[in-house]
Design goal:
Elements: H1 2-21, E1 23-37, E2 44-59, E3 63-89, E4 92-118, E5 124-139, E6 142-151, E7 157-158, E8 162-164, E9 172-183, E10 187-200, E11 215-228
Length: 230
């Protein structure tokens, strides 16, 4: 009986040591390009950045679970045009043209939980995929709307631009992340990945009157320093 207990404790100790030996952590950072999909808007991405902490818990030689905690900046620009024609009387028609310029500047807390598949023994080329929860932390987006009015198709008269400094964005988003990477035997890990959101991003109906809210799509390139492991 004592031998069985000692053998069991020894096995547990080896298992714990094995798991500990495959645990990695460290800082990660990179550049990001964000845009919107599922919309008719012509969106221009702005280069931004992301940074945070990476954790990697290995299971065997070729698999690991990799959660991260990141602060991610996302930015994009687009112009949006609408027109409305109102018949006032049989001989008077008023056409209103509205041009909105949106400059989105967003900051998210991203929590991706990825499954890694390594081609080598917890090193070399890797594939990964998994879900990501994003929580909106900062929103410094600005929408500038300019309106022109034309009566009976005459010369348009332009109004003063109106700025909306609190362009409304959904507070959370859930995405699917997938990518590739390469882990050196020691310290450095590099990655390229993309994430696509499932929910609508923009909430502002003042400008977006026809359902062009869009979904997040972000492309990222980055690197991480990994400590621990074997």
């Amino acid at each position: 009986m004592k031998k069985i207990i000692v053998l069991g404790l020894f096995t547990i100790g080896l298992s714990a040591q094995s798991l500990q030996a495959q645990f990695l952590f460290g800082p990660q950072a990179g550049i990001s390009y964000a845009t919107l999909t599922g919309t008719d808007l012509s969106v221009n991405p702005k280069p931004e950045w992301h940074a945070g902490l990476l954790f990697d818990l290995g299971f065997g030689k070729h698999f690991s679970l990799q959660p991260s905690l990141l602060y991610s900046k996302r930015g994009y620009k687009y112009d949006y045009q609408t027109s409305t024609t109102t018949v006032v009387s049989s001989d008077t028609t008023i056409t209103t043209y509205t041009t909105a310029s949106v400059d989105a500047a967003l900051g998210y807390i991203d929590i991706p939980v990825l499954v890694n598949i390594y081609f080598g023994d917890h090193k070399g080329f890797m594939l990964n995929a998994g879900p990501q929860l994003s929580v909106l932390l900062t929103n410094q987006s600005v929408a500038t709307a300019t309106t022109t009015v034309s009566t009976n198709q005459g010369t348009p008269k332009t109004t003063d631009p109106e700025k909306e400094t609190e362009f409304k964005i959904n507070p959370t988003d859930v995405s699917l992340v997938a990518g590739i990477g390469y882990k050196l035997p020691k310290l450095l890990l590099v990655y390229v990945r993309a994430s696509t959101g499932f929910g609508k991003v923009q909430q502002d109906k003042t400008i977006l009157k026809d359902g062009n809210e869009g979904r997040n799509f972000t492309f990222e390139i980055g690197a991480a320093l990994t400590f621990g492991g074997k």
